[in-house]
Write a structure and sequence with these properties.
This protein has helices spanning about 40-50, 100, 150-155, 160-170, 185-195, 210-215, 230-235, 250-255, 280, 295-310, 325-330, and strands spanning about 1-10, 15-25, 30-40, 65-70, 85, 90, 115, 135, 140-145, 175-180, 200-205, 220-225, 240-245, 260-265, 285-290, 315-320, 340. The protein has about 350 residues and is α/β, with parallel strands linked by helices. It folds into two domains: about 1-155 and about 315-345, Alpha-Beta Complex (Quinone Oxidoreductase, Chain A, domain 1); about 160-290, Rossmann fold (3-Layer(aba) Sandwich). Helix 4 crosses helix 5. The structure holds NADP nicotinamide-adenine-dinucleotide phosphate and zinc ion (ZN) (2 copies).
Amino acid sequence: MTTVAAYAAPAAKAPLERTTIERREVGEFDVLIDIKFAGICHSDIHQAREGWGEATFPMVPGHEIAGIVAEVGPGVTKYEVGDRVGVGCMVDSCRECENCRAGLEQYCLKGNVQTYNGVGRDGEPTYGGYSQQIVVTESFVLRIPDGLSLDVAAPLLCAGITTYSPLRHWNTGPGKKVAILGMGGLGHMGVKLAHALGAEVTVLSQSLRKKDDGLKLGADHYYATSDSKTFEELRGSFDLILSTVSAPLNLDQYLSLLKTDGAFVNVGAPEEPVALNLFSVIMGRKTLAGSGIGGIRETQEMLDFCAGHGIGAEIELIGASEINDAYERVLGSDVRYRFVIDTATI
Ligand code: NAP
Ligand code: ZN
Ligand code: ZN
């Protein structure tokens, strides 16, 4: 075991503080990564505050990890010491079920191993990226292409893949009208990716505060959902609405913005259930769907796509002592557009 510095929530809703954790010895197929940067995802906050239900403490959040390979096990073939790598929301899965075999490890029928707040295949609790090193089996390590700086690449490991996967699945491309709901960490990546895929992109945000940024990142249009005229004007407009909103929404209102056969795809993970009038999908043969991160193969495809298009996240780099303040700003929709921790400060 190796002792590693980390930032952890000692209990639900408690502020995060510096601590140490143990990482396992590097096994045959393991990669030891010196973590350089870790993004702060809103999911970290939901979990550290037990908003999604009971969690395990102490909790070291962080599933947007970018770093450098420091050591490899004797059976490792994909990576060498010095390689630039990333780790996302999962660090293992059963690898045998129908979904794992199809490259959909995120939907592993036996449940994948979450990067933190999970239990590894060795029965030990998992600890995430707000730490200086992590040991991960090579099959769940991603390669960060040379063209991408590690700090702006880190958020791609969750925010990037979580928006890329549904955009691809629902055939985002030229001629498609796509709305991105919520301009936060996921949302701003959704705007960049949908634009790069060739769609006509509209941002639906609570206000027009971030309009200039949205247009710069690739949006063609930007509307405030606090203005009721938005819903009259955009009625029946979109092929796809990708919702990244972290709080419950009035689904009926948003479904009215879809064209016939359009899809509302939810990736936001609010802590409370939402209501739905089923006539909102009956009329217009509309689809209401969800999507969770992406498989390992698709995550690598996304990283390569981002490198090819010069896409990284827009980040605010912070020191570890600023994590608790950053959480408050994320909760206040005041993030531009992803906080990334410089793990050298832990
Ligand atoms: P974030 O940076 O906080 O962005 C969420 C955005 O939603 C905010 O910036 C805000 O955008 C909007 N919003 C927040 N509260 C709202 C409210 N009450 N009403 C309307 N809009 C509101 O969070 P994130 O890291 O992007 O994560 C977003 C959600 O996705 C979280 O629930 C997270 O847990 C979830 N998530 C899911 C997956 C998955 O696999 N499905 C993966 C990662 C994250 P505006 O200011 O523009 O309105
Ligand atoms: Zn996340
Ligand atoms: Zn599986």
